[in-house]
Amino acid sequence: MEQGTTRVERWLDDLTLAERCRLLGGASSWRTHPIERLGIPAVKMTDGPNGARGEFSSGDRTPAVVVPVGIVQGATWDPELVGRIADLLGREARRRSAHVLLAPAVNLQRTPIGGRTFEYFSEDPELSAALAVATVRGIQAHDVAVTVKHFVVNDTEVERHTVDVRVDERVLRELYLRPFEAAVCEGGAWGVMSAYNRVDRDFCAANRRLLTTILREEWGFDGFVVSDWFGAHEPVGSLHAGLDIEMPGPARVYGERLEAAVAAGDVPESALDARVRAVLELVERTKAVERSADDREVSVDDPAERLLCREAAVAGMVLARNEGGALPLSGERAVSSVAVIGANAARSRIMGGGSSALRALPHRSILDAAFDRLPGVRHEIGCRIDRNTPLPDPDQLVGPDGAPGLELRFVPGDDPDAPAAHETRLAESTVAFFGTVPAPVGPGPCVVTLRGAFLPRVDGRHEVGVIVSGRPEVWVDGKVVVEAGAELPAGDEFYGFGSVEQLCAVDAHAGEPVDIAVTLPMARPFGAIRIGLREPVDEGGIDRAVEVARRADAAVVVVGTNAEWETEGHDRSSIALPGEQDQLVHRVAAVNGRTIVVVNAGAPVAMPWADEVAAIVIPFFGGIEMSDAVVDVLLGEAEPGGRLPITFPRRLGDAPAWPFYSPRDGVQRYGEGFAMGYRGHDRSGVEPLFPFGHGLSYGTATWLEPTVSTAELGPHDEAVTVTVPVEAGRDRDATVVVQGYVAPVDPPVEREPKALKTWRKVIVAAGTRTEVELRFDRDAFRRWDTERCGWVVDPGDYDLVVAASATDERGRIRLTVRGAP
After folding, report:
1. 701-817 architecture in CATH?
2. 717 part of the active site
3. Among 41, 118, 352, 627, which residue has the least CB neighbours within 10 Å?
4. Catalytic residue among 78, 155, 164, 228
């Protein structure tokens, strides 16, 4: 990279102080400043971990491939497959002309109710680490930089911008830092994103111990660190800590404030140049100069990429229960009629909410796929699950001219009736502007207007709900719902910038337009609007669903959450299913002995009916091909390959971190220590609903006695190998995930009862035997020594545990580890 290095040094020599400071602060929501006189292009960034959104948050968003979310990828237990998904993400980022993809998200799933639990891979650091490495390599193969996020212990949305996390040093090193360490040291990550929260009093974006001591000095990181959006607070501490880029723009911390700090002598120019060099090297690594001629965003709908998404959705789908061979719905137990029930059957949820949400390529619901592929399908919703008033379907929205879609206009200045600089149509009644508006509008103040109408489907009293960010005027059916300039109570939508939902009743008739009009003045591009429409309440939904189920050979009940319940900005308050879904399942199961529940949620939910139903399938939020993947599994055309990457507790109070969930006086103490997730259940003996690593196969497999390559790991030995013979039944292939845990015997310091260290996922052909080998490297036995400030391996005895899940052990082998000679 001699040519690039030479160019970086030349740029550094030629940049003025003002230009260097400007280069470190964002120019807009998604771009850094170009320095045109030197030929330095802007660096463009885009969200996120389950697809490349592009420049705009709403309105003119580019349709994108939505891959299965992080928890689904975690459930695959397959780094090779996750690497292929990452390769697709890299291609998608290039199609958006982005140089940086804000991914992967590798925080641990400390609690089941975290608003972003669906974005993360696992509660386990080693599983998360392996998938993080695969993701980093796959994306960066396309000259697109990753930002491994959110560094670090950003595991909840409660007080996320200010909370001060306190965690034991060993726990921090051995659990929460592990995925980041692997992404940097093994994956070669070019970028890291600092978290919003504080760690030991200092904001992560100004935490020198994290960004310099650990990240750069200990791990040898040579890339850039970018703040989470609005996560930087002051220039001097951030620059000294090692923050290279403040986002978004216009800069509030770097830029002019940083220039003043340098001029005042608070920041030496040598420290400034170190940060500038990191940004210039990012320009080189992503070939931004060579790519600057083409800045278009394009959308590609490739059948091969859809097949990959479908493969991943199947591989991460967990068959949690299957009593009496209720599944598949084919072969000797084929059915002639199926009741497909639930709100998420008709509106299946392929992703969560927040910054990872995209405008997806066309995709169909589980109900659509069922009508197409299952016999005798009848459908009832049963009950509603929405947190806010639901968004109308696209075919219910028309503009002032009666054409499809709401009319969205951008008018420079402050006169909403002036000519628009840009017009477009919205297929949904929500739009947000967090720093970006279409280029023709220009940088100054503008007015956004939204005009059109809802087309109700039924007669009766409808409820309209309005959530805003900013101070718009909102009219519905000729009445003012939100007065111009009104300051509404704060809610938690739109990342916490939205208002509490404002409700009004409208007497409407099917097919007759209900007019809506919104005028939103914006001094800067920051504002949002969401208008929902709830049809008249139908009290008999569950009764009708029960009758449909009673007459069917099998009942498929699709339960779950949606992007309002699981989203960046707030955690769930409970793991209970929203609405009356539990009652719906209880009653359907009472009349149909072949009730199959499909759990379309991004994180664990309580299942008080689990013992009453015949089968439970968990696809989580499975991306654009999720619905057909679900039917593939229901019919037995595909093998459910997933194993849980997170523990499903029976109740929220059973989650080991729950007693330490709420911050006190702004401080959140990780009081459970090592006892997080399955480690905590091992220690307490509290039985989960479904354990970490759990998942069933349609094929049967017999595990034989494991053997070990040696009974002793000497001081110069690198690893030991455990061999597990597995035999598949004669009927069909079996998917097996052989999990290897290390359990210290009489350790000299506190250790977890056992910890996952290695695994192998294999498909054993029907009627054959496979020798599965698990390699336990010497690092599998290491722990952090706080006195030596480094990793050590304690000599002594360890049990190598072979298991099908955290609670399903298939064998233990004692190993003696010898210390240094």
Report:
1. Sandwich (2.60)
2. no
3. 41
4. 228
